[in-house]
Design brief:
about 375 residues, Nuclear Transport Factor 2, Chain: A, ten-stranded antiparallel beta sheet, transmembrane helix
Length: about 375
């Protein structure tokens, strides 16, 4: 009897398991169908057009300094929406002040986006966006000044929500090229900067020796990422790892610029090659270049210190800076945080740089680095 009772119990348990499995298999397609319908209801083209429109309204605020209407495009009922709006207001204030101190006027700022993902999250939609900026500027009171252009590429993780028929920004997280200038930014920056109308000497070299400057700059332009100006369909060089999301890709990119055969063609060695600290860590690369003699310091200083040096001589410290040279950005003594390569000079010979993480193409070298405590290492690369 006990055996029969036990067998019956086992049969009942088995039957329950089968029923449960059947229920799961029947439910999964329904859930998948529900998810598919939810995604089908998302008009990706509509959202993409609206986001690009919102981003270009932000561009207008950056160009004019008038941010009074930006709140129309943010869901300020949520803390994340208020934070996103406040961040854009700070950017507009900073850029207006930056232009004023350098006698620059932006003629146009345009944003083009690539909406890579649109995923429903409740009543909101989570977005993964690649944004490419183009900035056009001229120098004030200079009728002969041609139009100068540079590009910036930014990767966003954002959320939008539809209210009263309009898409509003609920959150917008990204690595901002202006970030280090906004951290201490209030109403206005209080720096007495020298005029940007000082002249710097450009450089062109016909020799190919230890380091090929011309090819290094060409490589930096080709693989500058999603910034306007990229000549490689907005792609990095896939031969190398991408450290975005893992500490930043700026130093890895500069090492590519220096060492790739398509670029500067500097020989790698046991201390400096892909995967080493000297290759992908900013402090590591700075120490390697200076200790090996492949690079030498032209000058170290804050923005005020470097620009003050200009007024003390006919050309200033920047007369020694050449295309293919490097600039390292130090946030706190002994902490190199970023690297960029000098890729050109604008119509007033103001140095322009390329870099990764926030992708930059021919961007004024100090744009976004307004914290007065930041020091810049101007590094000359040995030919």
């Amino acid at each position: 009897m006990r055996l029969n009772h036990g067998m019956k119990k086992i049969k009942v348990m088995s039957l329950l398991k089968y029923i449960t499995l059947i229920f799961i298999f029947l439910t999964i397609p329904v859930l998948k169908c529900s998810i598919c319908k939810s995604r089908e209801n998302i008009n990706k083209e509509e959202i993409s057009a609206e986001i690009e429109k919102i981003y270009n309204f932000r561009c207008d605020a950056l160009k004019t300094g008038d941010y009074s209407t930006l709140n129309n495009y943010y869901d300020t009922s949520r803390p994340s929406g208020r934070y996103a709006l406040e961040h854009e207001v700070k950017r507009a204030k900073y850029l207006k002040d930056w232009c004023s101190k350098r006698n620059i006027e932006f003629k146009d700022i345009k944003s083009t986006i690539n909406l890579r993902k649109a995923i429903p999250r409740g009543n909101a939609v989570r977005l993964v966006i690649a944004e490419s900026y183009k900035f056009d500027y001229k120098y004030k009171n200079d009728e002969a000044s041609p139009l100068n252009s540079f590009g910036v590429g930014i990767r966003h993780t954002a959320s939008v929500v539809k209210k009263d028929g309009n898409w509003l920004v609920l959150s917008d997280w990204y690595t901002d090229c202006f970030e280090d200038s906004l951290q201490l930014y209030t109403a206005a920056l209080n720096n007495n900067l020298s005029s940007s109308k000082k002249y710097f000497n450009n450089f062109s070299s016909k020799r190919k020796m230890v380091y090929d400057r011309k090819n290094a700059v060409a490589y930096a332009d080709k693989y500058c990422g999603i910034a306007w100006g990229n000549s490689n369909n907005f792609k990095y060089n896939r031969k190398y790892d991408d450290y975005n999301g893992a500490g930043g890709d700026c130093t890895n990119f500069i090492s590519q610029v220096l060492g790739d055969k398509e670029g500067g063609a500097m020989r790698t060695n046991g201390e400096w090659h892909p995967g080493t600290r000297a290759w992908s860590n900013a402090d590591g690369l700075k120490n390697y270049l200076l200790h090996s003699g492949r690079g030498s310091v032209i000058r170290i200083g804050t923005f005020d210190q470097l620009t003050a040096a200009i007024s003390n001589t006919s050309n200033g410290v920047f007369s020694k800076l050449k295309t293919g040279d490097l600039i390292a950005y130090e946030k706190g003594r002994g902490n190199i945080d970023h690297f960029a390569i000098v890729t050109g000079f604008d119509s007033h010979n103001y140095p322009l740089v390329n870099s990764h993480t926030t992708d930059r193409y021919h961007v004024p070298w100090d744009l976004g680095w307004g914290n007065k405590n930041i020091r810049f290492f101007l590094i000359h690369m040995r030919d």
